[in-house]
Amino acid sequence: MATDTTETSATVRRDYLAERVRKVKPSGIRRFFDIAASIPDMISLGVGEPDFTTPEHIREAGIASIRAGQTHYTSNYGTIELRRAIAHELAMRYGLTYDPTNEIVVTVGVSEAVDLALRALIDPGDEVLTPDPGYVAYEAGIIFAGGVPVPVPTLAAEGFEPQAAAFASRITARTKAILIGSPNNPTGAVISREQMEGIAALAQEHDLIVISDEIYSRLIYGVDHIAFASLPGMRDRTITLNGFSKAYAMTGWRVGYAAAPKAILEAMLKIHQYTIMCAPTDAQAAALQALEHGEPDVNEMVAEYTRRRTLIVNGLNQLGLPCHEPKGAFYAFPRIDHLGMDADTFVERLIQEEHVAVVPGDAFGESGVGHIRCAYCVAYDRLEEALDRIGRFVARHRG
Ligand code: PLP
Known about the structure:
Radius of gyration: 21 Å
Bound molecules: pyridoxal-5'-phosphate
Shape: globular
Distance between the termini: 57 Å
């Protein structure tokens, strides 16, 4: 029988778990989902993934790849067809030129791409600046890579838009990189050109690399997405990350990519080839189909997210939960602390009393305190019902 080391403390005296792993708390998002999962009529605005199923022609491309016997490893970089399509996408949309033979790697979701970028750059003690609140994997990824996360607060009063001046004040001699995500998870904030230019100037002045997570680039409302690498002088110091999970509703396929200057990309590839080998072959075929033929699907899904965004942002504001207009992604991030409870209590009670699941804002960093994240990844009528329930809850607790 296998020995459970946690129960043999009489013989195992050391804590064998690496310090950098012990330092990271389990994700604050998952905790509430276990409670929520046991309640039958729950409406979950909790998980940040599209409720849409992957469009059929994309699924068929994955199936066709398997049927055709494409069951082998691909190149470590990913199939050359997919890399060419990614290079074309980046050129066509943002005027960016990447050599598909050695400046693009297909990864297991943007999750892997974040990890590769950080591990390729970070030496022990290197500091990485990242907006707070921000995607939960950033801080963990920096610590796993041996680095020191430096949260850069963003403010509700500024719609949580990261400000270059806030980054500037936290740069030290140990700062190695800036990790940004625009549009942002959990706030939906989009970084304006002015602030991006400010961040670019800092990168140049202090010789920093910018890791730009653009996974929500296609889910953007009323403004244009700016690829960070397209700013003057930034291509050579930017790692662009993007993927298929959000735009094409392909979370389960696990495909993303990184594009970067050859020297950086080759370093990332070294880690990728020893740890992953390649992204799943069938998923790469599906991703190729998505890039080549998925545009009408993206437009259709964005049209629906647009409708829902209007409903939830107006709805929350009318209920007295102040909510800035999120310009991207599929999250609303209202304030709730004036109801006299912290976000954990709010979330727990909302689940128990009204069967609606949301996520406490401070699960994404200190600056999210007093807020909740509502993912509008449910059908329009369910979202209406969720707002009715939240309305009842707020009325009851307003005091
Ligand atoms: N980056 C951000 C900002 C995200 O919100 C997510 C998923 O929620 C990811 C990366 C990971 O996405 P993927 O499914 O491509 O690994």
